[in-house]
Amino acid sequence: MTGKLTKTHKSSQPPKAKNKTGLLDVLRKIFVESAMKHPTIPAIRFERRLFRLLDAMHGFTELNIDRMISTKRCLIILKCCYSLESLSVILRPDEPGNLEDSALETQPRVYANKLNTLHISTIFQLPEEFLKAIYCPRLLSLTMERDASTIDLNSEKSEDYGFRDLVERSHCHLESLVLSNVFPKADELKGFLELEYTDQLQQLWVYDNWNILNGAKRPSSITNSVLDALTVVKSGSGFRGETVDQYQCPRLNNLGFSPCCSKDGELSSFVALRSQAPSSFILTYSWDPAVTHRVDRKQFKALTRERRWLVLNKTEGRWW
């Protein structure tokens, strides 16, 4: 269904106006003061059409909010757009002293039952409360990114961002997880990879912008424990229903690790195990400059000669 304006509610209807006051205030803030970029709705002022816009939002399947909004505002919009399949948003944390934020109702749980693609951007630490509040059983792709130019590595540390708990709570089978400049804790990443819901995961990128961060020391996310989690062999079902041995995240074939903070020899051993099958396997990577990785370099040369389906891209810059 498109975002075409269809039904009309007159503002003279007190019951509906009362129930929708919170969302209408949000719409005025977001869509009246700036244009909403949606392919089926012109960039015009919506003050006289808010009730019609509200009903139209129920049918939205894709929404791109290209201005910074608070977590509360985004959750209210997500609750209203219950047909949403794709959401791209720039989030900021709720501000306790902000009267507009404080006046909005807190959403204990928002059920985004049709959402399959979620892209979150921010210039601050990613608001953990947003992922804690949503339930997305059909989520396939999750991207979380932060503007590298706003990061102070002197005070930066690894965080729990809530993506593991989101997947476990929603029982969603992600196909893609991309984490850019957010420095997740290795334990959270390892815990995510060990979930039973990662059986469809094909793409895993955990990287930062090397050019902007200028080679400074980062919090470690890709460690030996993360690589070890991906080389665990477990029993699974084959194409004919038979029991077979397979690696954790058996479909994983597109990885980006920058920087990889494993010991010398660990990354090449991981690639040697996971790229045995003659099917496409791509790794884009950079290493912690504190380690020479002589064993890894030698092993990578041998692997690329033996396996034509293996692609290894070493990078020290912007590569996405």
What does this 3D model show about the protein?
The protein is 30% helix and 22% strand. It has 320 residues and is an alpha/beta fold. A 9-stranded parallel beta sheet has the order 1-2-4-6-7-8-11-12-13. Strand 7, helix 8 and strand 8 form a beta-alpha-beta unit. The longest helix is centred in the last third of the chain and has 13 residues. It starts with 13 loop residues before the first helix and ends in a 6-residue tail after the last strand. The N terminus is likely disordered.
Count of alpha/pi helices? 12
Number of strands: 13
Q: What share of residues is helical?
A: 25-40%
- Shape assignment: globular
For the largest sheet, list the strands in their spatial order: 1-2-4-6-7-8-11-12-13
In terms of per-residue confidence, which ranges show pLDDT below 50 for 5 or more consecutive residues? 1-22, 32-48
- Structural category: alpha/beta
What is the CA-based Rg, rounded?
22 Å
User: Mean pLDDT, as a whole number?
Assistant: 78
Task: Note the run of SSEs as H and E.
Answer: HHHEHEHEEHEEHEHEHHEEEHEHE
What is the oligomer described by this structure?
Answer: single chain
> What about the largest sheet?
9 strands, parallel
Query: What fraction strand?
Result: 15-25%
Q: How many angstroms separate the termini?
A: 32 Å
